[in-house]
Amino acid sequence: MVIVGFLLAALVGISLGLIGSGGSILTVPILVYVMGVDPVLATAYSLFIVGSTALVGGIQSATQKSVDFKTVLIFGIPSIAAVYATRLWLVPLIPAEITSIGSLVITKSIALMLLFAVVMILASVSMIKPNKNANVVDNAPMVYNYPMILLEGTIVGILTGLVGAGGGFLIIPALVLLAKMPMKLAVGTSLFIIAAKSLIGFTGDLQGAQVIDWRLLLTFTAFAFIGIFIGILLSKKIPGEKLKKAFGWFVLIMGIYIIVKELFFGSGGGH
pTM of the entire structure? Predict the structure, then answer.
């Protein structure tokens, strides 16, 4: 199973390399269901894996002049602050047992996986729907709606902190709609924002009491790195929209699977 998990890690990188998002949507379920990692710890591992992999992709995009650093700052700062605060203070505050519905006890782990599944389903819808923003002209002047970008950055940050998702599927539409940014530029910029907030969010976990399995974490990350280079090569051959739609359906099925599994068959890893 561990070998399967590492092969799936390459898929995380391929997804980030191809469509600039979706990496974390795969990372948490792989860690929980394939590698047997506790869901709360898996969200921490995901921040490190996705952050590191996105940084590699972001640097690659920057060399191709596909990153708008002004937006990285405007969107990134509130987002980073929100992730760090969420990991350091909010996640430890969630009680081990939240509530019970009849014989079903909703634990912290189940609640995080359910929240994650809801995020997956919302993400899948945005990937399956045809992209109306693909026709934003590459040379159109960028319009910064500062209050909206700051607010969106904060919301994405809190969500990232709770479920360990990089939030590329939230950041990319926000940049295209709020800053009128061309798609290619939005993907590159998104990778840098994901990298910064995921890695800084992870430092909030390092100050907690959790024991981190560095060997597992670094091996998984190495396979994701291999994946991102494969993804960048494939992106030159496969039309992005086709790929995004197929990936969206896959994410939708995964989201529904997690909800059914958590509610009716008990939680996955670490129990």
Answer: 0.73
